[in-house]
Amino acid sequence: CGIFGASGVDGAAALVALGLHALQHRGQEAAGITSFDGDHFHTHRAMGLVGETFSQQNEEAIRALPGSVACGHVRYATTGETALRNVQPLFAELSEGGFAIAHNGNISNALRLRQELVRTGSIFQSTSDTETIIHLTARSNYDQLLYKFIDALKRVEGAYSLVCVTREGMIACRDPLGIRPLVLGRRGDAVIVASETVALDVAGAEFIREIEPGELIVVKGTEIESHRPFPPRAPRPCIFEYVYFSRPDSRAVSAGRSVYAVRKAIGAQLAMEAPVEADIVIPVPDSGTPAAIGYAQESGIPFELGIIRSHYMGRTFIQPTDEIRHEGVRLKHNANRDIVAGKRIVLIDDSIVRGTTSHKIVQMMRDAGATEVHMRIASPPTKNPCFYGVDTPEKAKLLAANKSLEQMTDHIKADSLAFISMDGLYKALGEAARGEEPSHCDACFSGEYPTTLTDQRDRETAD
Ligand code: 5GP
Ligand code: SF4
Ligand code: MG
């Protein structure tokens, strides 16, 4: 998901809409904005893309969200079904007044907390993990909203970057490990928070710094007050943000460079670790493109766009018959035949999850006349699900969790297959190697989850 907040600026909701546009890649399922005008809260949430809900043609939607403070969300479902009641910001009337919350991440003890809350009288309006934070806040014994909210967060485990709007202003915070990103910016005096710096660029704001792991800021108008409610811990930001999730023009704050530069460095490292004799390097667009540029530059093998991607193939596209869908990837990707025919190619993608994409694309390259297809992957094998807000399927469906390298190579029918090593990935981030206490969360590759996984443990004992 993606989150964005603006405070201390007239028409804050219009800025939030711009920011959400820039964060669209983080969630295409639904979008919403809540504003506060000094007296009343206003919310508009809808299924679909930001541009459909908050477009120029739909000025009404923005005009109906007056106020100088607002927060918004783009959704990509990881828990809770796809329904309007789960679309954020979630809103509740607490004893201190209205409270709107937008969340990126996933709470890994949400089910356990929900069971306890429901048993003792809470009535949930959604199936979203985020709603547990609202109930815990409402029930806290502290006497100010801020301290109630902090009290609630102390009971929550997992990943959360949050932006909230209350009668007092805006609150933004990041979980103690900083698993999901959150950055701070200013547009003139106005205070902006966003999942990625690209949203600051698009909203005309200047990047100030990241919200630090475990930091909570209270914004009243244009004033920022920083709190440190949690005991200090070594941060573990998600490494997969740099591999796949973030937009390449965002800043990879913990690496001190752009995400694009990190991806190119990953590609260069991959070329050193897994060289191959070939005629051209081809990315699986768009996710494999920066790594392929790095691979091509490091290896000296020419880079070509041997696959063209349709930018009109959304996730919400209604699939035709099964038969047509099976040939399906051509809706999204098509071979650039003249480039591919008669060539030995290196194909670069960011990751293999189920193996569907690689399998289809290798075949597509062969159909287009490639003589050899060597697949190179810009991340280590994805062997474990993410419980922190990235939608990886259960372990049984992860190709690398169930097959050896040789079996995977057979499965996707490539001439060869290689993944970047774990140390290589950290080298691309500018570190010597992974280290005993890694600087990032890499659990989907390593299996070392940086938090307890209460709900997952409960599920396993129930099985
Ligand atoms: P597979 O086809 O192996 O299941 O998935 C690999 C492809 O999915 C890669 O091209 C990669 O860019 C993309 N991918 C990796 N992680 C995610 C994710 O969390 N969400 C979505 N929508 N795509 C992903
Ligand atoms: Fe990121 Fe993977 Fe950790 Fe999930 S498990 S937060 S995707 S590194
Ligand atoms: Mg992809």
Automatic annotation (TrEMBL):
Catalytic activity annotation: 5-phospho-beta-D-ribosylamine + L-glutamate + diphosphate = 5-phospho-alpha-D-ribose 1-diphosphate + L-glutamine + H2O
Named cofactor requirement(s): Mg(2+); [4Fe-4S] cluster
Molecular-function GO terms, alphabetical: 4 iron, 4 sulfur cluster binding; amidophosphoribosyltransferase activity; magnesium ion binding
Keywords from the named record: 4Fe-4S, Glutamine amidotransferase, Glycosyltransferase, Iron, Iron-sulfur, Magnesium, Metal-binding, Purine biosynthesis, Transferase
Active site (UniProt): C1 (nucleophile)
Positions of the Glutamine amidotransferase type-2 domain: 1-222
GO BP terms, alphabetized: 'de novo' IMP biosynthetic process; purine nucleobase biosynthetic process
Coiled-coil spans in chain: none
Residues annotated as binding Mg(2+): S287, D349, D350
Entry-linked InterPro entries: GATase_2_dom (IPR017932), Ntn_hydrolases_N (IPR029055), PRTase-like (IPR029057), PRTase_dom (IPR000836), PurF (IPR005854), PurF_N (IPR035584)
EC assignment: 2.4.2.14
Pfam families: GATase_7, Pribosyltran
Source organism, top-level taxon: Bacteria
Reported function: Catalyzes the formation of phosphoribosylamine from phosphoribosylpyrophosphate (PRPP) and glutamine.
Family classification: In the C-terminal section; belongs to the purine/pyrimidine phosphoribosyltransferase family.
Name the record gives this protein: Amidophosphoribosyltransferase
Organism: Stakelama tenebrarum
Lineage: Bacteria, Pseudomonadati, Pseudomonadota, Alphaproteobacteria, Sphingomonadales
Record gene name: purF
